[in-house]
Amino acid sequence: MSTLVQEQRIVADTGGRPRLHPAMVIGGLMLLVIVGASLLAPVLTSYDPDGQDFDQILLAPGARHLFGTDNFGRDVLTRVLYGARIDLRIGILAVVFPFLFGSLVGSAAGYFGGWVDTIVMRTVDVITAVPFLVLVIAIVAFLGPGEVNILLAIGSVGWVTYSRLVRGEVLREKNLEYVAAARALGFHRWRILLGHVLPNAVAPAIIFLASDVVLVILTTASLGFLGLGVRPPSPEWGMMISEGREFLSNGWWVATMPGFACMYTGLMFILLGDGIADLLRVKGQ
Amino acid sequence: MNEPILTVDNLRVEIPTRRGVVHAVRGVSFTVNRGETFALVGESGSGKTMTCRAIVGLIHPPGKIAGGSVVFQGQDLVRLPVRDLERVRGSGVVMVFQDPMTALNPVLTVEQQITETLSRGEPPLFQRDRAIELLRQVGIPDPERRLGSYAHQLSGGQRQRVMLAIALARQPALLLADEPTTALDVTIQAQILRLMLTLQKEFGMALILVTHDLGVVYQSVDRVAVMYAGQIVELAATAELFARPRHPYTIGLIGSVPSADRNRLLTPIFGMPPDMIDFGRGCPFAPRCAWATEECVDREIPLAAVGAEHWSRCIHVDRLDSAPPRPAASPGGVSGG
């Protein structure tokens, strides 16, 4: 009898708490692996990412060079691992700032309406009217290549999606009774917006965040491929793919291995995004 | 004792729509005394919720307060700057909403929502204790465990109790309750209502109860204002109102309440409430009224004293004790007006 009661209580408890989605666990492990490997790169390989060795040019993957070597005799695995630092850093920074800015601006537009909404949404319309990659390439071409400029370019274009997503949610949320209740308690409007409405409205933006990281990493790789990315000899994946393109016939691994790294990272963030979406759905109900 | 805490004078609320301006509240005036229980009664759309929301300045745009004043402790809330109004809302007047399902924030815990209402600057541990104490006062079992709960983990009755705890956190002088039990199970309704009345005595608050449930009013309220079509049609002490209703609409409302000890048929009020955009000048209830005469539709009927502390918006007060001269509008029939 008492064990039965005990059991019921346990079931009731976990029912209330969000459970971890398997995709989240796999994605998390993958993130752990790649972040760990890139941080531990100096320990994991004895090679220098920029160290050239002209006796070891275009060696196929083997025991000494797991991912082979490129046309300068540099170890591809080492470069992929060091490159993860650059691509992950750009990928994450280039979504976090647009996410924060876009959410804030979008929620203010949705909540206050009127001229705030008009200014924000017309700006968003103008930016959305130009294709994403074209605009980013134009801005980078104008500012010049380099990591900071890539962040600036992607950031100044990327916030519009977040502001749209959050604005839509805020429009729905702001008419719900709990907002009126918060106002009836005399809370300041910014406090209601940031403390009450935004946490309810931000879920779709967070879900988009994960897939946006993938998009940004691919954009960074594309910029690298076009020669507008991080400056050589930095081991950025896109640039490595671009450089390896010339050796596809006699050294396929030079371009393919960083390509796999891009795929791995993309898959990882998509899994994480699915998991987060699931988690937020549980909480929202 | 009879010190007014809230004086509403000639309050008008208008909502512009595509079809024209909806006159949701049309010149409502009443006072609520310190520690008193006051009820606004009427059917859906009679303007009782709008009156309530107007008092705390929570009319959804494009609706707006078109005139009148709401004087609370010497300050006119209608003309108060937003900043001061926010202060009054937090500590002076608090409103509890109809549907506890949506009135709690779904992503904040019970503890976060209660402590946010408490004055800042208190140490967190103290705030936590206060939250537990408040939850205990509103009858939440095992309050320590409930602090970490989200709204979706609570039952309807518990949510309304949490709403009350939040409302009481700053010890307001006036609590507005907009049909606080309508969304709850019948068995829970009485509990919540009793709880509210107990807490009202305990905290020495005045309470404005918005309801369409006359049974609730009869048991627990000091004075009643009956609303119809955005106006108060009758205002009296509860016992007086039930013993000597002086408006046909009130008579109709009382007649439509089921009663266990009397073996009689319910008398419905036939017809529909009027269009809130196009009013004639006369009594809005006239088309549904059994006592209506031509005079009722011709001129505006003022709220007139018909007894001690008893007002009615009817010109046939003296004839109401006799049987109606003609049957009220028939069920399907359209009665001219």
Proportion of beta-strand residues of chain B = 15-25%
In the residues of chain A, how many domains can be counted? 1
The CATH architecture of chain A: Orthogonal Bundle
Largest interface: A-B, 21 and 34 residues
Q: Helical element count of chain B?
A: 12
Describe the structure.
The complex is a heterodimer of chains A (285) and B (337). Chain A is mostly helical and 285 residues long. Chain A is built from 12 helices and no strands. Chain B is 31% helix and 23% strand. With 337 residues, chain B is of the alpha/beta class. In chain B, the strands form 2 sheets. In chain B, strands 6-7-8-3-9-10-12-11 form an 8-stranded mixed beta sheet, with helices on both faces. In chain B, α5 packs across α7. The C terminus of chain B is likely disordered. Chain B is built from 12 helices and 12 strands. Chain B folds into 2 domains: 223 residues, P-loop containing nucleotide triphosphate hydrolases (Rossmann fold, 3-Layer(aba) Sandwich), CATH 3.40.50.300; 67 residues. Classes of the chains: A mainly alpha (285), B alpha/beta (337). Chains A and B meet through α8 and α9 of A and α2 and α7 of B.
Kindly list the characteristics that best describe this protein.
heterodimer, A: 285 residues, mainly alpha, MetI-like fold, 12 helices, 75% helix, elongated, disordered N terminus, B: 337 residues, alpha/beta, Rossmann fold, 2 domains, 8-stranded mixed sheet, 4-stranded antiparallel sheet, 12 strands, globular, disordered C terminus
Summarize the model shown.
The complex is a heterodimer of chains A (285) and B (337). Chain A has 285 residues and is mostly helical.
Question: Topology of this protein?
Answer:
The complex is a heterodimer of chains A (285) and B (337).
Chain A: H1 2-16, H2 22-39, H3 41-44, H4 76-112, H5 114-129, H6 132-143, H7 147-173, H8 177-184, H9 189-201, H10 203-225, H11 237-244, H12 253-284
Helix pairs in contact in A: 2-4, 2-12, 4-5, 4-7, 4-9, 4-10, 4-12, 5-7, 6-7, 7-9, 7-10, 8-9, 10-11, 10-12, 11-12
Chain B: E1 4-17, E2 20-33, E3 37-41, H1 48-55, E4 64-72, E5 75-76, H2 82-91, E6 93-96, H3 100-103, H4 110-117, H5 124-137, H6 143-146, H7 156-168, E7 174-178, H8 186-203, E8 206-211, H9 214-220, E9 223-228, E10 231-237, H10 238-243, H11 248-255, H12 294-298, E11 304-307, E12 310-312
Parallel strand pairs in B: 3-8, 3-9, 6-7, 7-8
Antiparallel strand pairs in B: 1-2, 1-4, 4-5, 9-10, 10-12, 11-12
